[in-house]
Amino acid sequence: MTIREGQSIPPHQDNCFGCGPRNPAGLHLRMQRNGMGVVADLVLDERHEGAPGLAHGGVVAAALDDLFGGVLVVLGVPAVTANLSVDYRAPVRLGRTLTLSATCTRSAGRKLWMHGTVTDANAITTEATALFVRVGLEHFSSHADVAGPPFGDWIGQARTPSPDGSGASGVR
Ligand SMILES: CCCCCCCC/C=C\CCCCCCCC(=O)SCCNC(=O)CCNC(=O)[C@H](O)C(C)(C)COP(=O)(O)OP(=O)(O)OC[C@H]1O[C@@H](n2cnc3c(N)ncnc32)[C@H](O)[C@@H]1OP(=O)(O)O
């Protein structure tokens, strides 16, 4: 599956907490391709509250983690989060239209390094980096029946990291 610039990223699966349209407890993120990364708008509400009027930090981290998962779809690489680091620079307010952005900054062998931000009115509230590690399809299929779309649509197009270890196309 080739996802063109500005095109929607299909959900990882319908019940994904971050982007699955069928998950009643989910964030229902809808991402678009932006270069070799992804962007999404998100409005958090009382369901996501930590301190009064503010988003729970774990919810914000989960949203960024899922955007990194969206970058994987653009790259066509099945991988999982090995490490996630979040800098909370300013409180994230409920009821605001937040802009989330993520990209892969580097890859080598099985490893992909991600960077993402949350902005509110162009001010960065949150910044995250993550290490993802490429896995085989058995990582997923050994826990659940994952046959059929949407996985097959994009996993089948997975690009092999280049021999020099610089990784999937478009990755710096
Ligand atoms: C037809 C079927 C198709 C199905 C397809 C399904 C498609 C879905 C695809 C994509 C879904 C995306 C969904 C996005 C949602 C957001 C992402 C999540 O929530 S993911 C869930 C949370 N993460 C985990 O549950 C990982 C649990 N951990 C593991 O499984 C392993 O630890 C794993 C795979 C990460 C690594 O284990 P190892 O045994 O394979 O490999 P080792 O050798 O340990 O690590 C490889 C390299 O990475 C480094 N590394 C590993 N963990 C590290 C860490 N925490 N910090 C630093 N380096 C680390 C190691 O030092 C090593 O580096 P050196 O090659 O030696 O240079």
Structural write-up:
By secondary structure, the protein is of the alpha+beta class. It has a single domain, classed as Roll (Thiol Ester Dehydrase, Chain A), CATH 3.10.129. The protein is 16% helix and 32% strand. It has helices spanning 57-75, 138-141, 151-155, and strands spanning 31-34, 37-43, 79-88, 97-108, 111-120, 123-134. Strands 1-2-4-5-6-3 form a 6-stranded antiparallel sheet, with helices on one face. Strand 4 (97-108) and strand 5 (111-120) form a beta hairpin. It is globular, with a radius of gyration of 16 Å. Ligand 3VV is lined by residues 12, 18, 65-66, 69, 72, 78, 80-83, 109-111, 131, 133, 135, 137, 140-141, 146-147, 151-152, 155.
Q: How is this fold's topology laid out?
A:
Layout (H helix, E strand, L loop, with lengths): L30 E4 L2 E7 L13 H19 L3 E10 L8 E12 L2 E10 L2 E12 L3 H4 L9 H5 L17
Antiparallel strand pairs: 1-2, 2-4, 3-6, 4-5, 5-6
